[in-house]
Write a structure and sequence with these properties.
Blueprint (H helix, E strand, L loop, with lengths): L5 H11 L1 H6 L2 E5 L4 E6 L13 H23 L3 E12 L6 E6 L2 H14 L3 E10 L5 E13 L2
Antiparallel strand pairs: 1-2, 2-4, 3-6, 4-5, 5-6
Helix pairs in contact: 3-4
Amino acid sequence: MRKFTPRSLNIFLMFKLPSAYVSGVRVTSISSQQATAKVHHKWINQNPFKSLYWAVQGMASELVTGILVMKRIDESGKNVSMLVTNQSGTFTKKATGRIIFICKDGDKVKQAIDQTIETGEGQNLMMTAEGFNEDNESVSKFEYEWSIKVKS
């Protein structure tokens, strides 16, 4: 079983998702229920309008959904594949300063992975990650459809 700590996940980012790491995306917490990552608006990750580039927000939001899936797969002990099959995002406020992305869909992940293990059939899972500024105002919301299936 792999260790799923913020430190181990940030090392994973450095080697497996270097664009997210260089952009400043960092995992801050993970449990079976939720995952959180932060990113600070800086020169390297800004858009021409001096706010956090949408793609950086996308990397942080996908990360918090994906690490919940990865953690639960690891805990299952089964060989399960995962793939994003659909994604949408909504931007509601200019993202400046520190932005925290949170996904609270741990129960959905457990249910879908248990189902695919039990039935052998692939499952589609909709997960949401929302980004909040330092005033706790929502700046963006992303939905990811993950496809998971036990490998034979």
